[in-house]
Design brief:
alpha+beta; 6-stranded antiparallel beta sheet; 11 helices; 16 strands; globular
Length: about 400
């Protein structure tokens, strides 16, 4: 009896994962970076899934990627597979990709279909996720196929972006994206089209990608050969977060080409802006917006595992540019530029990840140019270690 009581007391007094983070929670000029376990612990990763990715609206696609009835795509959110499908009425639906029989994924990859047939025992589902057929199940007591369906997710569209949400109680998407709409609405990104979608898998925890993309401090050293030569780091280091973990800033810089010149022209909605028009934003937890005068280069990053992250870069242009004879060459030039930028970054963040498991790693102090990093780190901590 006494022994069990002692064990209980010991467990209660054990420091929790969030207890050792005070040095990071200080104001920027006194703050230190995070200890390694925040980027290597399966317990922290599980909390991130539960507290962030199962709660927030998540950007999963452009609506144009699911243009026609029957178009579908699959996606995995930290081990929870989902399907997004456009039905016969043109409406978008999202549901779990877990067969209601034993959980096998009923849809694979992406494409166009009339229905989903589970490859294991053949249960059939329509584009809304409703069960339409289940062989040899008539005698099963208490099983009513009419009320059986793949578990739905909330789904909505903002500015041409498709978002889903696992939490049925979530606030409406319009409210979630309100700061972003206020900041970027004038660009009218719903009128732009995807020229390219580039996918990179990086050997690092997802938070390093988020932090790196808001970190202007490294731009001069790492990106001197690409965009780092064209920006004023002091000017961009103003990206203090809103209460919901997001920010948007606008400044002068050159287009994302090696020449620093636009290749095609200007986005119609911002035709009155100078060639140096540039913007940068973050919508927590995983969407970044980079805009220049002729294109938008948003990216979304997804945790694939504790130490692996998928980065998806879109390149959006006005529809009118797609018919130009030099369009493909221009898109290729952008691709080469972005690939170089991602390579520059990935070497650094994969090295960061390795450091997190090093016995002698000790988190160092932050620079004032790390205002965005400090903001994103502390916003994530506030979410991960919040009380339920
Ligand atoms: S697991 Fe899908 S039909 Fe059996
Ligand atoms: Fe970078």
């Amino acid at each position: 009896m006494g022994g069990a009581g002692q064990t209980r007391r010991k467990l209660t007094n054990r420091p929790t994962l969030g207890d050792r983070l005070d040095p990071t929670r200080q104001p920027l000029t006194q703050a230190r970076h995070l200890p390694g376990y925040i980027y290597t612990s399966p317990e922290v990763y599980a909390l991130e899934k539960e507290k962030i990715f199962m709660k927030d609206w998540l950007c999963v696609a452009r609506a144009e990627e699911l243009e026609n009835p029957g178009d579908f795509m699959t996606h995995d959110v930290m081990g929870d597979p989902i399907v997004i499908a456009r039905d016969e009425n043109g409406n978008l639906n999202a549901f779990s990709n877990l067969c209601r029989h034993r959980g096998v994924e009923v849809a694979q990859g992406c494409g166009n279909t009339k229905e989903f047939s589970c490859p294991y025992h053949g249960w059939l589902y329509d584009l809304k996720g409703r069960l339409t057929g289940a062989p040899y199940m008539k005698d099963t007591e208490g099983f009513d196929p009419k009320t059986c369906r793949l578990k739905p997710l909330l789904i909505d569209v903002w500015a041409g972006w498709v978002f889903v949400n696992f939490d049925a109680e979530a606030k409406p998407l319009a409210e979630f994206v309100a700061p972003f709409e206020k900041a970027f609405g004038f660009i009218k990104m719903e009128d732009l089209r995807v020229a390219e979608r580039l996918v990179y898998d990086l050997e690092c925890n997802w938070k390093f990608v988020a932090e790196n993309l808001v970190d202007v401090y490294h731009a001069g050293t790492v990106h001197g050969a690409t965009f780092g030569a064209h920006i004023d780091m002091e000017d961009i280091a103003r990206n203090a977060l809103d209460a919901n973990g997001s920010y948007a800033i606008f400044y002068d810089a050159k287009p994302h080409t090696l020449s620093g010149k636009p290749l095609f022209g200007k986005i119609p909605a911002i035709e009155h802006m100078p060639e140096s028009f540039s913007g940068n934003g973050f919508l927590a937890p995983n969407m970044h917006m980079f805009t220049r005068i002729e294109n938008l280069r948003p990216c979304v990053h997804w945790p694939l595992s504790l130490t692996r992250t998928r980065l998806i870069y879109y390149n959006l242009f006005p529809k009118e540019f797609f018919d130009r004879p030099d369009f493909e060459d221009g898109v290729k030039a952008y691709r080469e530029f972005y690939t170089q930028v991602v390579e520059e970054d990935s070497e650094m963040i994969e090295s960061l990840q390795r450091a997190m498991s090093a016995k002698r790693f000790e988190p160092g102090p932050m620079s004032r140019l790390e205002v965005g990093v400090h903001g994103v780190i502390n916003y994530n901590l506030s979410r991960i270690f919040s009380n339920p």
